Amino acid sequence: MSPRIAFLHGGNNAQLRSFEDFSHSIDDLIYLGDLPRCDLRQYAAVIVPDAMDSVRIAEHARQLNDYARGGGFLIVFFQGEADWIDVVDLEWRPSLIRDWLWWTKGGSVEIHQNEPRHPICEDIPLPAMTWHWGGAYVPPPGAVPILSLCDGTGSLFLDIAIPGGGRLMVATLDPHLHNGQRFMPSATRFLQGFYPWLNRELGIARPAANRVTYLQCVHTLDNWDPVTTTESLAEAGFTIRTHPHLDIDAAVLEATDILYLPSNYDEYALAAKRDLILAYLARGGSMIICGEPHTPFLPFLSRFQAVPARPFANLKVRVRDDRAGFFAGMPEDFDAWQGVVGQYARGWSAMPGGAIQLTDVGPADDPKPADWLWRYPTETCTGGFVLMHNGDNLIRYPDHGPAKDRLVRDICLGLRALMMGQTVI
């Protein structure tokens, strides 16, 4: 059995959002109430994230300490004294940052990465460890300090070998809280380095989200066999295959990371496969949907609505929010095909709750979402992403210039980054 990583949580929104961001790199989400029924020995590492209530986590002290004594890798982020840890003698000092607003004054903060640097520092440079902290620990014998106070009074990040083969990593930083709050960019960068490092440290190789399946809908021109799109995706490291949309099954979806559905599909046939598609999204698969839905074949879709075609400016699609970089390489007139405005999109559909409006169409004073991005919600926080394009097949755009035939590639690159935690939204 390959090594696995567990992530504990107490129902805190920031913990759940951070797990969701990095679920590609973690295996199981475990609620504190369910922890007594879990055999932690099946995990190569157990993460106790910050934003954890000190009393609730202390109730599980024996189980967590026994896990480390038995050879497990226990990783604890805790603001304050984690006095429930007894697998090693930790001396905590309530040392706080001198100036909480240091970053607004062009100054620096009183921490440094210890020399020789811990290997994790190759993945998490000092700026990504720099915001504030909740106390410091005096390094016990045999501990390797990773991040310490400049005055020598303690360390904020330690790697400690435990007799019997176990390992404890403890930090008084709070990256999961601030990443989950979308408040501290350094905290997000910390986790974007931490989780890839942890997987390599444990010898876990997780495949990149590189498998694209293009669902064939109509036997016309390049809609059935998108040669140029296939070439651009291959150049970006994707593997792409085509498959008739009427014949999708569990095996096809199991071998797919990003499912591309061009326009002109059979809504009745797809509605019959609703449970199959939703299960695919629930386990982390992502989907690009093109078209103008009439009969919403998935429960989060809505009927297409056209915008007024006069004046023609209503049909000009404007990028509103490109935080995922889908349109970063596109020219201003990317939405015209052979010079025809309105081919890309002529309308919109209502977004599900929590979706991001990527582009606008319609009057400037009443813009509607031609494209939107949404993450499929699940209790396990492992849902994939859905990009809804209310218009023609995206493989047509742009049809000129240096970015010709690259829009689908750039969208797939953005989705892959989101799925792997390289980008968070």
What does this structure look like?
The chain is α/β, with parallel strands linked by helices. The chain has two domains: 5-201, Class I glutamine amidotransferase (GATase) domain (Rossmann fold); 211-419, Class I glutamine amidotransferase (GATase) domain (Rossmann fold, 3-Layer(aba) Sandwich). The protein is 22% helix and 22% strand. It has helices spanning 13-21, 54-58, 61-69, 175-181, 185-201, 221-224, 227-235, 250-254, 267-272, 274-282, 407-419; strands at 5-9, 28-31, 45-48, 73-77, 91-93, 111-113, 136-138, 143-149, 155-162, 166-171, 211-216, 239-244, 258-261, 286-290, 305-306, 318-319, 347-348, 356-361, 368-375, 385-389. The strands form four sheets. An eight-stranded mixed sheet has the order 2-1-3-4-10-9-8-6, sandwiched between helices. An eight-stranded mixed sheet has the order 12-11-13-14-20-19-18-16, covered by helices on one side. Strand 1, helix 1 and strand 2 (28-31) form a beta-alpha-beta unit. The longest helix is centred in the middle third of the chain and has 17 residues, at 185-201. The mean pLDDT is 95.
